[in-house]
Amino acid sequence: MTAAKKEMGKWTNPTKAEYDKYLANLSPEKKATKGLSGNELANVKQAISYVQTTHLSQQGLYAQLTSEYGSKLSADEANAAINKIADLIDWNKVAVYQAQSYRESGNLTGQALIDQLTSEYGGQFPADQAQYGVDHIDDKLKGSNDIWK
């Protein structure tokens, strides 16, 4: 650290290059939650959890976060949480996980699988992400937490 001083785990006056390097080394989840607290932090963590465990599309995530049977967030709260994670998540990879899940649980293939992935009652993925999910359904993924870019 050149001009920056590290005191009690915090930097004082880091250069832009030092701060950029620090941010680049953070995990995607840490990047998404950096600087958040209270309800905003809880909402973002909940959004991440939904995507990691149930492999929801962005639209499906919004529906879950705002549902009276889900998180019951306001539209603004849900959009804020989604906006914090949207650019960090590989939504195509999420679609692959969801396609694999639909194939395993419902024996869906081909057009039926795409229909389920894009359905408003199913995955709610955009057509291009659904097609990617089907095209890559046999890809070996690292695990359900491997949703990050």
CA-CA gap between termini: 28 Å
Count of helical stretches: 8
The fraction of residues assigned to DSSP E strands is under 5%
Helix content: 55-70%
| Average pLDDT rating | 90
Low-pLDDT sequence parts: none
Please count the beta strands (DSSP E, at least 2 residues each).
Answer: 2
Class from secondary-structure proportions: mainly alpha
- List the helices and strands in order: EEHHHHHHHH
In short:
The chain is mostly helical and 149 residues long. The chain is built from eight helices and two strands; from the N terminus they run ββαααααααα. Strands 1-2 form a two-stranded antiparallel sheet.
What is the fold's blueprint, element by element?
Layout: E1 5-7, E2 10-12, H1 16-24, H2 28-33, H3 38-54, H4 58-66, H5 75-85, H6 91-106, H7 110-118, H8 127-135
Antiparallel strand pairs: 1-2
Features:
single chain; 149 residues; mainly alpha; two-stranded antiparallel ribbon; globular
Structure explained in plain terms:
The chain contains eight helices and two strands. The protein is mainly α. The longest helix is centred in the first third of the chain and has 17 residues. The radius of gyration is 18 Å and the shape is globular.
